[in-house]
Write a structure and sequence with these properties.
The chain is mainly α. Helix content is 93%, strand content 0%. The protein has one domain. It is built from two helices and no strands.
Length: 107
């Protein structure tokens, strides 16, 4: 092989590895989004349980307060997790744009 072919093959391998890394990042992001949906369902179930307990006169105000605080903490965690996923989406989108621009510049 000539030196040009060697450099071209190395560049092709580099681009292929970068594309594989982007695909892996996208899969990880999809898994995180799925986890976020599961977490949201858990929060919704906890909110439903709280509403049922609030309608039950046998449940004390102290117990309701404790349950409400726990649900609030779950909601805060869900928001934090959603922000992390959104940041990861932004980072992946930026990387895809950079990769596309680099590919366009090389073409």
């Amino acid at each position: 092989m000539s030196e040009i072919e060697d450099r071209l093959n190395a560049e092709i391998e580099f681009v292929a590895a970068a594309e594989e890394e982007l695909a892996a990042d996208a899969q990880a992001l999809a898994a995180a989004e799925e986890g976020l949906l599961i977490e949201a369902e858990m929060v919704a179930a906890a909110e439903d349980a709280l509403a049922l307990d609030a309608a039950d006169p046998q449940v004390s105000d102290a117990a309701l307060l404790e349950e409400a605080l726990a649900v609030g903490a779950m909601e805060e965690q869900l928001i934090e997790d959603a922000l992390l996923v959104a940041a990861a989406e932004d980072a992946l989108a930026d990387e895809i744009v950079r990769s596309a621009r680099a590919d366009a510049a090389d073409a």
